[in-house]
Design a protein that fits this description.
Layout (H helix, E strand, L loop, with lengths): L4 E7 L3 E8 L2 E5 L5 H9 L3 E6 L5 H4 L2 H7 L4 E4 L8 E2 L5 E4 L2 E7 L8 E7 L2 E7 L2 E2 L2 E2 L8 H12 L6 E4 L4 H11 L4 H10 L7 E2 H7 L8 H11 L6 H14 L1
Parallel strand pairs: 3-4, 4-5, 5-6, 10-13
Antiparallel strand pairs: 1-2, 2-3, 7-8, 8-9, 9-10, 11-12, 13-14
Length: 253
């Protein structure tokens, strides 16, 4: 049985800082706030040894300096635009921690340099995807990026094993499901997910579940394509065009 524990630490308004714990060591992912991480590691007698950063936005980085001050030997992994990074990582980089090798993917779309961290523990794959993919949704496309990049990144994630566990950095699920139900009002999986999201935390989530409810992973389906085309009263030539229009619709929903 695995000795790895993965804990969501609520931060700011709707962020999750994912904390990996094994033995007396811990890793924080997207440390947008220091105080809740410090409280947890001190309560459990842990040493914070690494911080992984998915992208440069302040709600994912603002707590790093204080955590480095508390744990001066803590390594910070991030892309070249992460000022606090002590180790620059990019596509195909690997990170070592205890007996594990973590793969780094570049999954541009929300931002140009957005990263994901893939950790396999025993037979289970865990993917820390930041703001690229949310349950029932995906991140906005910021000016340094492009919708097609985000589409390609989500398609790459969608090719992972169906039992992959996904760890987004925000609990946006209830809001996203309202939009998903608007796009696919007859999808029974969305209705079930809405009932669960109303009363319990929803993350992490399996890729198989997302493929049933997330409209941004379902743009190849005729029902979704027709709904988007009718909304915009336009012929959308391919899945990328459908995705781009769907993301724009969600921005205004």
């Amino acid at each position: 049985m695995s000795s790895l524990h993965i804990v969501p630490i609520p931060a700011l308004n709707d962020n999750y800082i994912w904390l990996l714990q094994q033995g007396n060591e811990a890793i924080a992912i997207d440390a947008g706030q220091a105080e809740p991480v410090l409280a947890y590691v001190q309560q459990h007698g842990l040493q914070l040894v690494q911080i992984w950063v998915t992208h440069h936005h302040g709600d994912h980085t603002a707590g790093i300096a204080a955590l480095q001050a508390a744990f001066p030997r803590c390594q910070v992994f991030g892309a070249h635009d992460i000022a606090a990074a002590t180790q620059i990582v990019q596509e195909d980089s690997q990170i070592s921690w205890q007996n594990k090798q973590i793969d780094v993917w570049q999954i541009a779309g929300h931002t140009a340099n957005h990263l994901a961290y893939l950790l396999r523990d025993d037979e289970q794959l865990h993917v820390f995807c930041g703001d690229t993919l949310f349950s029932a949704g995906c991140g906005r496309v910021f000016p340094d990026s492009q919708p097609e990049w985000l589409y390609r990144s989500l398609q790459r994630i969608a090719r992972l094993p169906s039992d992959t566990l996904l760890y987004p950095a925000h609990e946006y699920t209830a809001s996203n499901l309202r939009f998903a139900a608007h796009i696919e009002p007859n999808n029974p999986h969305i209705a079930v997910a809405q009932a669960k999201a109303a009363c319990t935390p929803t993350l992490p989530v399996s890729l198989a579940h997302e493929q049933q409810i997330n409209p941004f992973l379902r743009v190849h389906l005729p029902e979704v394509q027709q709904r988007v085309a009718e909304h915009y009263q336009a012929d959308l030539v391919d899945d990328v065009a459908v995705f781009t229009a769907l993301r724009e619709w969600k921005n205004r929903f």
